[in-house]
């Protein structure tokens, strides 16, 4: 009992700190706390990190590290989280910034069911869930629709560039969460980006929570129209990445 109380106190303190850091409304911190409870209790939540005292940093704080970039978008802005899984980073971003509209694109129906239920339970009205592959979404409703594409723990940078480029409006930005930097991966991504109309803009080293290491946000900006042949057929970007 004592250990649980300590864990709950830790979560409450971390959310209070995050709320102050990111200028969150009290309602937002409450919804983030409830999201952590849902992730803990619902087996459909696609993550191995379920305990709120861990997930508050690994999932929530890490997701919110992109807010300075998203706050630069012109309002109203549409954002898409591809391969959203359990809803990270998209759900925390939507909770933290109600002015954004966030689409959560996920190919696995079971994962979509969790995200839809979470959005309903938390009354997150600025979220929509799409059960689709990123490539298919980019050929239909999502093409050139977004000011930002979010991708966390999804694929290599070159693959992400192909997923993101057709989704981005001109001037839009891909924000890709990555760990330790890999020179070979970044070189391959630069070649892919050039073919897709993207330009590598920056790599922001972030420290979303105490003790975190090697957290980097890779940014690519859309500077030219994406050739009409992209995206390729579903699965091609993963199996045969551009370079």
Descriptive labels:
single chain; 243 residues; alpha/beta; seven-stranded mixed beta sheet; 10 helices; 7 strands; 22% strand
Task: Give an overview of the whole structure.
There is one protein chain. With 243 residues, the chain is an alpha/beta fold. The chain has helices at residues 2-21, 26-41, 52-64, 67-70, 90-96, 109-122, 134-139, 157-164, 183-196, 236-239, and strands at residues 77-82, 100-106, 127-131, 146-152, 168-178, 198-206, 215-222. The protein has a seven-stranded mixed β-sheet with strand order 3-2-1-4-5-7-6, with helices on both faces. Helix 6 (109-122) links the parallel strand 2 and strand 3. The chain is globular and about 55 Å long.
Low-confidence stretches: none
In whole angstroms, the N-to-C terminal distance is 54 Å
Largest sheet composition: 7 strands, mixed
What sequence of helices (H) and strands (E) makes up the elements? HHHHEHEHEHEHEHEEH
Structural shape: globular
Oligomer: single chain
Mean of residue pLDDT values: 95
Strand order of the largest sheet: 3-2-1-4-5-7-6
Strand content: 15-25%
Tally of contiguous helical segments: 10
How many DSSP-defined strands?
7
Estimate the helix proportion, in percent. 40-55%
Rg over C-alpha atoms, rounded to the nearest angstrom: 17 Å
Based on secondary structure, the structural category is alpha/beta
Question: What's a quick, concise take on this entry?
Answer:
This protein is α/β, with parallel strands linked by helices. The chain is 44% helix and 22% strand. Helix 2 packs across helix 3 (52-64) and helix 8 packs parallel to helix 9.
